[in-house]
């Protein structure tokens, strides 16, 4: 459903992605593994419109969304959970969640989705009135993830879910993502290490200095520890 | 792809030479020629019927160009969004006016205090203000402008002249000479001030101070990390800018034998802003070119009256948004392409360091 | 035991406070959402005022009809300004530069246009509410009461709007985290336009309601602009609460200075206060943004 062809993207004066081809099919969990600074975040930002692509195409459900504005891409159901959470710091947990459903039709519908998220993560309801900037790292990550779920997502793009988290929180976050995967949601996950992603992945890409150097089924690539070590250190 | 300029890529040799010895860019011949022309011009012009009027225009041009250059030094180069320029001009003018009129000083003596007081005022505003971010500078300098304006109108009589400003200020004592001769002397004084100011500003821009300024403007974090003290740099620029602006104010007061509160009019402000924006924001020649254009156009479109400020405001807004570089860089590009020397190979051109628009 | 001076000072303070708050509200909203310092705010103020004047004097309609016209015209002007001069440079590095120069340029153009269209004579704009009350020798005009009531009502409205409405929350989201807002499918640039239009409406409203208190002339926008700036910064850039509180603090301060020390000391007094605030607490009362200290 999501297809990227020959994508080139970068920032003023330098190109970071040198021709990326990847795809995510219905219900698939796809992982892009790569060390920091090699273009994972740039890739996700380019797909979801936060960064303009220099050349190439991004197709979603057959539609060319390459030049679309970020808010329209999100409205189409391509939901990006960004690196660093990017929560609304002066808004409460509840308000952050509601913003996730900005595109929802009515307040009633928003309430329905909110309750669904509260069911998945009850502690969110307990902290509903707390300002986002007062949350701990793990809580923020959960909130960012839940906020993404508030939209009518057709596919989730998640950027480094475990970044900066303690081991316990890391486990929780991957468990949550696992739950989401099981419900059939297609995932494109960008990550730095292969430790927790085994259960989530159907296919894996390896990203190195802006190019995808390997692709393969998860069982194959994730077992090959020698290969992984040489790429990820 | 080339490396971003902010990372301080080393310029290739030919560019390095040009930057190290900026005077090689402007041939001594050109400057000499222009100076000579400037010296001879008034003598020629007074022979013509409208010659005197043209000399008057040139004097006006000299003084406006000084103020425009000074303002551009802090706004265009320094990134300091100060709106105190007009007020500093007024400080200079009033200082010399009061000294000459109320205390009876010789204008040649009192005018020396114009830049001094203007600089002092600038330092007074600058010390608390320049540490703060841009928005606050805008506010505080606007407030200073307003305070000065109100004070000039409602202040003690020897300053406010009953709300009209100083109306009886002695002119420069240039001896008992004929009108034409007097005008020529006044012209030389103006030209002298203009030349000194232009030279000093030119030197500042191309000095280590100037390089530090453009570094700060283009990539602040990098410049600060290299040890450039932003506050000190800004303060120095602010002082230099005020010095010459005050001097221009002083000159104009004695030239016009008075200074009125209309100097604070917004139409004067937009005039100056237009000069900088149209001519070339943040470039050396920009404000000079802009001064010429604005004064020239104003004369050419005489019937325009109140529409002038209206047009200037809209033009300034349009240029700021759609062609922020202004006229000078465009002219230079045309010159370089069609008349200039062989262009450098692409790699070296991209390593051109930060001096904006030159 | 009330004496006239005290009542005068207090009433003046409340009135000034409401006025300052109203002027600052629009400015702080725009700063918060768009990070734009709108130096054309004063121009929009007189657009509202002059439109109302024109409706009353040329179309011979009552001021009550002129009020909404003034507000709509001001909001439209702001919207057009956004489309022509702000939107083209959004996201570009020269944004601050360009918008600062453009808004000042436009501000002066509007002033010049007013001069051409309406000539420099002072104009009298009729108040919406006439009449006044006398309280121990202090004249309290009905228009003044209207201004106070309107200001407080607008603050409440804006607060409710920002807190509970979808568009209002979107505005807050955009102010706090622009990229994330995009990812929530909030149209950022369109939101900017909405905020600027709202700000324009507020400025226009202030213009219509306040012009009966002074003689309307082409330079009338400059002073309110500076005062709005002072209040906005004092209260904290981007803070609605700050605009309200700072408006009243400064209003009362200025009023008391005027009554007890004389009018001449009002502006310098406020000037000193703001400098003090910038030294002690550069973010203003409720500001959350970073302030660079060298």
Q: Keyphrases for this structure?
A:
heterotrimer; A: 233 residues; alpha/beta; Rossmann fold; 6-stranded mixed β-sheet; C: 294 residues; mainly alpha; ABC transporter involved in vitamin B12 uptake, BtuC; two-stranded antiparallel ribbon; 11 helices; 71% helix
β-strand number of chain B = 2
Counting helices, strands and paired strands, the structural category of chain B is: mainly alpha
What's the main sheet of chain B like? 2 strands, antiparallel
CA-based gyration radius of chain C: 19 Å
**Biggest beta sheet attributes of chain C:** 2 strands, antiparallel
Describe this structure in words.
The complex is a heterotrimer of chains A (233), B (358) and C (294). Chain A is of the alpha/beta class and 233 residues long. Chain A has a single domain (2-232), classed as Rossmann fold (3-Layer(aba) Sandwich). Helices cover 36% and strands 27% of the residues of chain A. In chain A, α6 (137-149) runs parallel beside α7 (167-182). Chain A is globular. The model of chain A has no long low-confidence stretch (mean pLDDT 89). With 358 residues, chain B is an all-alpha fold. Chain B folds into two domains: 25-264, no CATH class; 265-358, no CATH class. Chain B contains 17 helices and two strands. Chain B has a two-stranded antiparallel sheet with strand order 1-2. Residues 1-24 and 346-358 of chain B have low confidence and may be disordered. Chain C has 294 residues and is an all-alpha fold. Chain C has one domain: ABC transporter involved in vitamin B12 uptake, BtuC. Chain C has eleven helices and two strands; from the N terminus they run ααααββααααααα. Chain C has helices at 4-34, 41-57, 63-86, 95-118, 142-164, 166-176, 178-183, 188-210, 222-235, 240-261, 266-280, and strands spanning 132-135, 138-141. In chain C, strands 1-2 form a two-stranded antiparallel sheet. In chain C, β1 (132-135) and β2 (138-141) form a beta hairpin. In chain C, α1 (4-34) packs across α6. The longest helix of chain C has 31 residues, at 4-34. The chains are: A alpha/beta (233), B mainly alpha (358), C mainly alpha (294). The A-C interface holds A 48-50, 69-72, 74-75, 79-80, 82, 86-91, 95, 98-100, 102-103, 107, 147, 151 and C 166, 169-170, 172-173, 176-177, 179-188, 288.
């Amino acid at each position: 459903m999501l297809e990227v062809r020959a994508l080139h993207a970068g920032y003023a004066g330098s190109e970071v992605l040198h021709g990326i081809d990847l795809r995510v099919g219905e219900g698939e969990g796809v992982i892009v593994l790569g060390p920091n600074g090699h273009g994972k975040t740039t890739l996700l930002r380019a797909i979801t419109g936060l960064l303009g692509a220099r050349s190439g195409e991004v197709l979603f459900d057959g539609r060319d969304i390459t030049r679309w504005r970020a808010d329209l891409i999100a409205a189409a159901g391509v939901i990006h959970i960004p690196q660093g959470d990017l929560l609304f710091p002066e808004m409460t947990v509840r308000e952050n969640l509601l913003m996730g459903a900005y595109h929802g039709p009515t307040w009633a519908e928003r309430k329905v989705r909110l309750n669904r998220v509260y069911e998945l993560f009850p502690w969110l309801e307990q902290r509903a009135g707390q300002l986002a900037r007062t949350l701990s790292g793990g809580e923020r990550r959960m909130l960012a993830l839940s906020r993404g779920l508030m939209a009518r997502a057709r596919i989730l793009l998640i950027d480094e879910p475990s970044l900066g988290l303690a081991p316990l929180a890391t486990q929780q976050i991957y468990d949550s993502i696992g739950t989401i995967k099981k419900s059939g949601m297609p995932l494109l996950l960008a990550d730095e290490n292969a430790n927790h992603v085994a259960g989530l992945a159907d296919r894996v890409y390896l990203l190195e200095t802006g190019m995808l150097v390997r692709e393969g089924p998860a069982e194959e690539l994730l077992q090959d520890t020698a290969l992984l070590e040489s790429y990820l250190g | 792809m080339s490396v971003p300029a902010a990372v301080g890529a080393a310029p290739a040799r030919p560019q390095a030479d040009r930057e190290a010895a900026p005077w090689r860019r402007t041939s001594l011949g050109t400057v000499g020629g222009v100076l000579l022309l400037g010296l001879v011009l008034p003598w020629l012009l007074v022979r013509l019927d409208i010659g005197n009027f043209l000399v008057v225009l040139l004097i006006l041009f000299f003084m406006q160009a000084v103020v425009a250059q000074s303002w551009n030094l802090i706004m265009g180069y320094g990134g300091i969004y100060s709106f105190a320029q007009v007020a500093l001009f007024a400080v200079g003018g009033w200082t010399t006016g009061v000294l000459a009129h109320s205390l009876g000083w010789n204008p040649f003596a009192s005018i020396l205090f114009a830049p001094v007081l203007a600089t002092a005022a600038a330092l007074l505003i600058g010390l608390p203000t320049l540490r703060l971010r841009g928005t606050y500078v805008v506010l505080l300098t606007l407030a200073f402008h307003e305070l000065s304006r109100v004070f000039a109108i409602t202040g003690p009589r020897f300053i406010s002249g009953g709300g009209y400003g100083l109306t009886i200020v002695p002119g420069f004592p240039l001896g008992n000479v004929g009108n034409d001769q007097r005008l020529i002397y006044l012209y030389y004084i103006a030209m002298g001030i203009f030349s000194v100011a232009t030279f000093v500003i030119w030197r500042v821009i191309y000095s280590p101070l100037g390089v530090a300024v453009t570094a700060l403007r283009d990539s602040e974090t990098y410049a600060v990390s290299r040890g450039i003290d932003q506050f000190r740099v800004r303060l120095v620029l602010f002082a230099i800018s005020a010095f010459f602006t005050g001097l221009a104010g002083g000159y104009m007061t004695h030239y016009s034998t008075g200074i009125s509160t209309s100097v604070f009019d917004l139409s004067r402000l937009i005039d100056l802003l237009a000069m900088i924006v149209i001519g070339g924001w943040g470039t050396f020649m920009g404000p000079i070119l802009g001064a010429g254009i604005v004064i020239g156009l104003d004369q050419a479109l005489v019937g325009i009256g109140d529409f002038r400020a209206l047009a200037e405001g809209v033009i300034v807004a349009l240029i700021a948004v759609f062609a922020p570089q202004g006229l000078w860089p465009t002219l230079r590009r045309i010159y370089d392409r069609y008349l200039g020397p062989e262009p450098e190979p692409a790699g070296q051109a991209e390593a051109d360091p930060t001096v904006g628009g030159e | 035991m009330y004496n006239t001076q005290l009542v005068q000072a207090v009433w003046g303070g409340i009135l000034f406070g409401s006025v300052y708050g109203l002027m600052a509200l629009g400015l702080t909203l725009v700063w918060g959402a768009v990070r734009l310092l709108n130096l054309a705010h004063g121009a929009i103020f007189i657009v509202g005022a002059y439109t109302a004047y024109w409706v009353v004097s040329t179309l011979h309609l009552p001021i009550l009809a002129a009020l909404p016209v003034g507000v709509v015209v001001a909001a439209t002007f702001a919207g057009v300004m956004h489309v022509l001069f702000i939107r083209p440079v959004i996201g570009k590095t020269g944004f601050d530069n360009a918008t600062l120069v453009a808004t000042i340029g436009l501000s002066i153009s509007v002033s010049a246009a007013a001069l051409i269209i309406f000539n420099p004579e002072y104009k009298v704009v009729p108040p919406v509410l006439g009449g006044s009350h006398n309280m121990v020798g202090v004249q309290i005009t009905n228009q003044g009461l209207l201004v106070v009531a309107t200001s407080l009502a607008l603050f409440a409205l804006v607060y409710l709007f920002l807190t509970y409405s979808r568009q209002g929350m979107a505005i807050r989201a955009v102010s706090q985290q622009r990229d994330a807002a995009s990812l929530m499918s909030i149209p950022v640039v369109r939101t900017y336009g909405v905020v600027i239009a709202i700000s324009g409406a507020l400025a226009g409203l202030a213009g219509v309601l306040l012009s009966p208190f002074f003689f309307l002339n082409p330079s009338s926008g400059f002073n309110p602009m500076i005062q709005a700036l002072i209040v906005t910064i004092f209260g904290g850039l981007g803070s609605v609460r700050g605009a309200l509180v700072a408006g009243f603090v400064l209003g009362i301060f200025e009023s008391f200075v005027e009554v007890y020390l004389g009018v001449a000391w009002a502006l310098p007094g406020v000037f000193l206060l703001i400098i003090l605030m910038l030294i002690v607490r550069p973010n203003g009362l409720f500001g959350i943004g970073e302030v660079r200290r060298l």
